[in-house]
Amino acid sequence: MAEEKFDAIVIGAGMSGNAAAYVMAERGLKVLQLERGEYPGSKNVQGAILYADMLEKIIPDFREDAPLERHLVEQRFWMMSDTAHTGMHYRSDAFNEEKPNRYTIIRSQFDRWFNGKVREKGAIVLTETTVTDLVTGRDGAVIGVRTDRAGGPIYADVVVLAEGVNGLLGTRAGLRDRPKAAQVALAVKEMHFMPRETIEARFNLDGDAGAVIEAAGTISKGMTGMGFVYTNKESLSVGFGCLVSDFAEGDETPYGLLDAFRQHPSIRPLLADAEIKEYAAHLIPEGGYKAIPQLFGDGWVVVGDAAQFNNAIHREGSNLAMTTGRLAAEAIFQLKSRKLPFTKDNLALYKTLVDGSFVMKDLKKYKDMPKLLHTHSSNFFLTYPQLVAKAMEDFVRVDGTPKLDKEKATLRNFARTRSWTGLVGDAFRLARAWR
Amino acid sequence: MTAPVKAPRVEEKLYQNRYQVDAGKPHITVTPHETPSANLVAMTKICPAGCYAKNDAGQVEIVADGCMECGTCRVLCEETGEITWNYPRGGYGVLFKFG
Fold it and tell me: Which residue range(s) make up the domain with A395?
């Protein structure tokens, strides 16, 4: 292996690494992919929702054999107080289509399948191999990697860093900064197994149709965070996440918050009698547009979570990972076919492609959202959910109080708790950040 | 702020997981210290695997066997040099069946 030189080395076999390796191998490049897990997927954690469009652009017929769980027909947004939830549900039969738009997946199984496709295209995949260092040439360009396997460095024209949100290699080599505590959320998740008929009855589902609940409110104790329940075929993915910077200042434990979420009166009946088979933890990039690092340099590009590519508002991470992996591969293929060297100037093509795609346009749209939610977290995650729950209770509870008095009380309640200027200011800031 | 929710025993959650422990070669170590920083003390609550604990003398120690390799402690404590953080050798560490 040591004498052999590759066109490209891909570090990591998650969504972005698999997308990059697949596209490059398909175009005939000589690709080596390195994965530290026992099998691809064994280190990877996600909710998880797969968006079909981004995978179709890589593997158009993926539905034929990919391990998909349920196609989503219903989205429930719940604003939670300690005893109640106020929900907005969207369900449409239009999502029961021939080629559904979104699926739940189980990442370890899905990534194993995806990586099998990478191998079919001719890439060499080495698992149980941790990359320990990037190898640089005299001019500072990245020219290869060292691993914890016996033997010397492995060389390539270009290295694709698909090493995930907690990637050590790029930060150690000075290519980007370590994520800051306010730029990552810590999420914990459990897999709750139950018969599929039970899931379908509890969530009002037919066959392979699925639903997701995304919940925010007092469950995060004033921190920026949210909980979720995703329906798989025979399991529910139940998770909870909060910003690491908020965790660091508070007294909560992530597993304590997850258990409190599970025991919320609105959630508990959905999970009754489940068998829990796994507990996982993972960081989620939350920094948005302003946290995106330098994406390319002499002999390297960085893709996916490692580059903070995640749309936290729309919960789109893996599709940004797949898309940036694919775009990096296309840029590398173009340079290779034009016989151009993999210099920083030439690899700027990757950034040009990302800038022209939905990835950067969406992240730019929400560039002010992280700051808004992080600096006013107790209003958005504690105060408003309680006010809304009280307003809803007053609206539905019949107790002889005249309706006009109830409405006045609700308005007074909002104004007293958050002040009129605070309310107007929050609405204005939210609208501006959303624009 | 309200009182923190009562934490369950995290060991019971980790019991479900599969690990290949690299005996004698922990991938995270805590640097010997007199007084731990606020962030290092915070890890005794934040670590989702409960790997960090305070000893009787007030220093923070780690047993990394149950680590899920999330990187939270690296984000909070690596910069100050209070911990060292590496990924386990290839094939070792947590092995998710579902992920």
Answer: 369-434
pLDDT band at B1 (very low <50, low <70, confident <90, very high): very low
> Residue range A409-427: average pLDDT?
85
Out of A46, A184, A279, the one facing B75 most closely (by C-beta) is A184
A chain contacts of residue B48, beta-carbon cutoff 8 Å = 186, 188, 253-255, 281
Question: Residue ranges per domain, chain B?
Answer: 27-86
Question: Tens digits of per-residue pLDDT, B16-34?
Answer: 999 999 999 999 999 999 9
- List phi, psi (to 5°) of B14: -65, -25
Report ipTM for this prediction: 0.94
Q: How far is CA A382 from the centre of its chain?
A: 24
Q: What is the pLDDT of residue B2?
A: 56
**Is A405 found in the same domain as A318?**
no
**Which residue out of B5, B73, B80, B94 would a mutagenesis test of the A interface target, given it has the greatest number of A Cβ atoms within 10 Å?**
B5
Residue B42 and residue A246: Cα distance in Å, rounded? Answer: 11
Average pLDDT estimate for A264-293: 96
Region A238-245: mean pLDDT is 96
Contact criterion met (CB < 8 Å) for A109 and B98: yes
Architecture of domain B27-86: 2-Layer Sandwich (3.30)
